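Chain X:
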Amino acid sequence: MTQHTLVDAQERDRQDKLASYRSEFYIPANTIYMDGNSLGLLSKRAERTLHDLLDSWKTLGIDGWTEGAHPWFYLSEQVGEKMAPLVGGLKSEVIATGSTTTNLHQLVSTFYKPDGDKTKILADELNFPSDIYALKSQLQQKGYDPDTHLIRVKSRDGRYLLEDDIIDAMTDDVALIVLPAVLYRSGQILDMEKLTKAANERNIPIGFDLCHSIGAVEHSLHDWGTDFAFWCTYKHLNGGPGSVGGLFIHEQHFGKVPGLAGWFGSKKETQFDMEHTMDPALDAGAYQIGTPHVLSLAPVIGSLEMFEEVGISAIRAKSLELTGYMLELIEQELGGMDFTIGNPVDGTRGGHVLLEHKEAARICKALKEDGVIPDFRTPNGIRLAPVALYNTFEDVWHTIQKLKVIMDEKRYEKFENKRGVVA
């Protein structure tokens, strides 16, 4: 393997076609930010559109619902249209609304229709806890015991899932399937096309959690025939803490009655008729429940401008280059230090690298003290996410060099090997 140097990293940055976008973001001083898969950084465009929406409230008052550059009444549809290319959906199939878990509740309430012996929900044991909590509560609402009715496909190694194992679990008693697109710890990308095809053949509705994939990898949900999907916007999409989420409903389900009804799911033309019989929208807009969180949607507008300009293919290509470079540096610099690569090393990896080490929590604290912001995941995971729009190859180089010094000098030993309140 070619020995990589700082000069090599700097040359890669000079050739990077996306390099100019780094200046669009506020990079914390004296910091290498490697936690964009938990919370993306603020961009100047997101800041601008937040101020634009504040100004519309300030200057227009209630007329902001229908006037100004971004009328609030149509904001969810406007942002959904901008997100549609990132998930491979038609603009009518995507809406910006709610949060990850509220959208999951909405979608499960809609698509989980137990009938006869077909009563179980299929998930996996590596899924993010919030999704599992929601699925358990939905089962309980229907009077079923989650211990017997929530199937969680086992991982053979604690890191990855095999698609064939998931397909084998698509038995006749399964009424709904909910899976992650990218596993939040290992970063494995599931073969969504293969899984959707298998579910469709068995007439089982299937949906995906895109929280760790949207803005980092490509999707073709419409063409695959995926029934639904849901996601947040504060990770790779850089929408800000608690920014409004999104959902996808395949057009084949337009006209389906949403499980949870609310007035913003009405047709725009009739919403203010104030009738007690709902007239739902005929597209993904029907799955809105409450009034749009305008100020939490505002930064997403500016952030998505960059995704429109660059395109998800170019972002994915650079992401693979950054994580590939990081993996090569880990092999070059960290041998013999008891690290284990916990993510796929091929094209099935998402937007981050997972390093496993028995001292992971204290190593993360030492990295943070030295100006690198990582992400600790229980019990032994260090997630490092070089983000295509604002991280550089030099960032990656310095991150691994700092980690090498921390390990060589055992700087981590002064910290307790225990996570903080927020890991």
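Chain Y:
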Amino acid sequence: MKTSFQRIASVATLAASLLFPAVAVAKVSEQTLKNLNTAYQGESNAANRYAKFAEKADAEGNAQVAKLFRAAAASEAIHRDTHQKTILELGGKANAVELDAVTPGTTAENLQASIKGETYERDTMYPEYLALAKTDDAPAAIRTIEFALTAEKEHAKLYQEALDNLGKNAKADYYVCQVCGMTVTELPAKKCRSCRHDVKEYKKIA
């Protein structure tokens, strides 16, 4: 037989369950969480590295390339933050960020290194991560990975163009979507083609 205290506790527990139903925690594989943490670390380092490359480009008189590096750094910072948010949303733990030491080379060398990194993410890393996230049926993971993948494709293209025209780079403005990190030289008419948010979400990078 239940004591008065036990009956009161049971009623309180039932009331709490009705008033505050348990929040469902999204299910996702441990590997996808590991992938997101790897991407989180990678984007954190990319944002820092590109900021350093921008300083080097400015020092060498390559103002247009410096602006591109700053735009890419801003984009990677958005990917960093969306990856972190997604990890927590999926019930995982975002590992402490460890920034690598950065020793910039010449602007040409920095562009070459950046193209290599973006190409790997575009062709190998993110497609693999995306495939698993889809197998997991994890919409939040799919979303943040697709945002990064779409932007990295554009970064690789912009870096290659900058390298091909180094020393005679035409002036251009860069805009970064604050939702998904998409990086463009011309604003879309109405919506970002990556996340479909309004064009007002784009920020011009100086």
